Q: What sequence folds into this?
């Protein structure tokens, strides 16, 4: 039960983050397709982007798009930005097996809030690498991994 509540909270936070971003500026948004919907354990998805305003704070959202063939309720990701490495877990389904996220045409988009108010130390080029942390050598059902960076508005 606690897992379902936590998963629902993460989903709600992610969705609210997306919808509350309407008055904010999308600085970067890109999806990388996963070949044959099978994400290899040693495959790293890399996003290269640049930041022009180091004074602003940014919301960073990882988006995972998966099919209904994804075999698990949760997912672990290893995230590396060159300065810091993190491990994150999030839920894609509740305890009854109902998918969380935005469902359409047999696919589910799951936004995961990585940072709510991130401050880049300087302008320039940056990157973010994402690798799945599941035990499967080929993680089936993941179709795309995305990154969205949104400049927060004035508070």
A:
């Amino acid at each position: 039960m606690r897992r379902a509540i936590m998963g629902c909270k993460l989903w709600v936070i992610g969705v609210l983050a997306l919808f509350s971003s309407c008055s904010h500026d999308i600085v970067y948004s890109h999806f990388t397709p996963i070949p044959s919907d099978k994400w290899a354990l040693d495959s790293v998805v890399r996003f290269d982007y640049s930041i022009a305003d180091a004074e602003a704070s940014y919301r960073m959202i990882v988006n995972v798009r998966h099919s209904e063939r994804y075999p698990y309720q949760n997912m672990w990701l290893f995230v590396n930005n060159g300065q810091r490495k993190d491990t994150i877990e999030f839920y894609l389904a509740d305890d009854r097996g109902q998918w969380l996220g935005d469902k359409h045409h047999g696919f589910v988009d799951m936004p995961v809030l990585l940072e709510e108010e991130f401050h880049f130390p300087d302008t320039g080029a940056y990157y973010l690498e994402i690798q799945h942390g599941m035990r499967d050598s080929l993680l089936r059902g993941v179709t795309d991994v995305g990154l969205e960076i949104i400049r927060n508005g004035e508070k």
